[in-house]
Amino acid sequence: METRLIDIGREKFASEIWGRAPLLTRRAGTFADLFSVEAVDELISRRGLRTPFLRVAKDGTTLPDSSFTSPGGVGATISDQLDDTMLWRNLADGATLVLQALHRTWEPISQFGTALSDELGHPVQVNAYITPPRNQGFSHHYDVHDVFVVQIEGTKRWVIHEPVHPAPLRNQPWTDHRPAVARAATEPACIDTVLEPGDCLYLPRGWIHAAEARGEISIHLTVGIHTWTRHALAEHLTRAALAALGDDPGMRGALPMGIDDPNDEVTAVREHLIAAIANADVTSLFHRARREQARPAPLGPLAQFAAVHDLGPDTTVKLRSALYARLEGSHLVTRVGRVTVADDELPSVTRLLDGGSHPTKTLGTDLVERLLRAGILVPAEQ
C-alpha cells in the first residue's frame, strides 16, 4: 500500500486517515502493470465473461442485462455472455461500463488485491469503471465500503461531500438516506478535484461522491475495502452466546402458561445472555468468517497432479498463497478445508505456516502428499 497508493507512510495513514478522512495522493505511481485500455478490450471481447462480471450504467441508472448480453453460440448453452457489439454501442451512447470483481478475472489485479488484503487485514475487491468523455455513470451516492480510486487512463472530476450517515454498515445503503444525500450534494464540496493517470484517492465508507469524465475516455479502478467492524464482532459475540444458551435446558424451557407480563422473564434472560456474552469465545467464528470472505491463490489442477505424481524427497513445496491457514488444536484450518494433524507432524506444519519453501524430506512425505492432495501445499516454483 505504502509504495503504490499513499505517500504519507503507513503508520500515519493508519492513525490519522484510515476510516476517518479522504486522502488525495498525486502521482502515486504508474499502474500500467495492473490495468490498461488493452486489458478492457480483452476482458470484454475475448474472455467469454458473463454477468455479473460486468454491468452498465447511464445517468445514475443501471441498465438491464439484456441490453449488453446475448447467447454464447454453438457449444455454449448460456444466454448471458457479454456482447461486445452491444457494449460498444452502449459506450458510444454515453454509458459507463463497470467490470466487476477483477480480483477474480485479471491476474495482475488478483495478485495486487491479495497482497493488499493481507496487509490491511480486510477483504478487498476491485472493479474498473470505463466512462466516455463528459459523462457520468452514477449520481451522488456513498459506498458501504472504503475505496481507493486509482486513475488509469484519461481524467475524471471527483466531487466529495462529508457523510450524512458516517461509517454505514453493509445493510445501510445510500438509498436509505436518499433525501439527505441529495441535500448534501448541493452544499459546498470538501474536495473538488480532477484525477489524472497515476493519482489515487482514498474515501472512507459513507463519504458522498460523484465523478464525471472530462474530455477523453476515463478508466479508473475502485479498490473496495470491506472493512471488518466492531458491529461485526458484536454479531459474532451474540451468535456465540446464543449457541451457548441453546445448550442450557433452562433457557430452552417454555415461558409460564398464560404469561401476560414478560418483564420478570426478560430480566432473567438478560442476565443469562450477559453471562454468555462474557464467556463467549468468538475467535474461531471470526477467523471462519474471514476465511469465507475471499478465495485462495489459483491452483492449476494439472500442475498439482504432476506434483503429487512426481513427489520425492527433494521436491520443494510451499503453502499455497491466501489460504488464511492456522492451527486450531490438532487441525490445520484453511480456506479450502481442514486437515487433521498428528502430534509428530505439528513442528512441520508450524514451519510451513511460517512461510518459505521446504524440501519434502524435512517435512515428511506422507504429510506433504496429504497437503498436496488437499490443495494446501503447492510446488515451490508455482
From TrEMBL:
<feature type="domain" description="JmjC">
    <location>
        <begin position="94"/>
        <end position="242"/>
    </location>
</feature>
<keyword id="KW-0408">Iron</keyword>
<dbReference type="GO" id="GO:0032453">
    <property type="term" value="F:histone H3K4 demethylase activity"/>
</dbReference>
<dbReference type="InterPro" id="IPR039994">
    <property type="entry name" value="NO66-like"/>
</dbReference>
<dbReference type="InterPro" id="IPR003347">
    <property type="entry name" value="JmjC_dom"/>
</dbReference>
<dbReference type="Pfam" id="PF08007">
    <property type="entry name" value="JmjC_2"/>
</dbReference>
<protein>
    <submittedName>
        <fullName>Cupin</fullName>
    </submittedName>
</protein>
<keyword id="KW-0479">Metal-binding</keyword>
<dbReference type="GO" id="GO:0051864">
    <property type="term" value="F:histone H3K36 demethylase activity"/>
</dbReference>
<dbReference type="GO" id="GO:0046872">
    <property type="term" value="F:metal ion binding"/>
</dbReference>
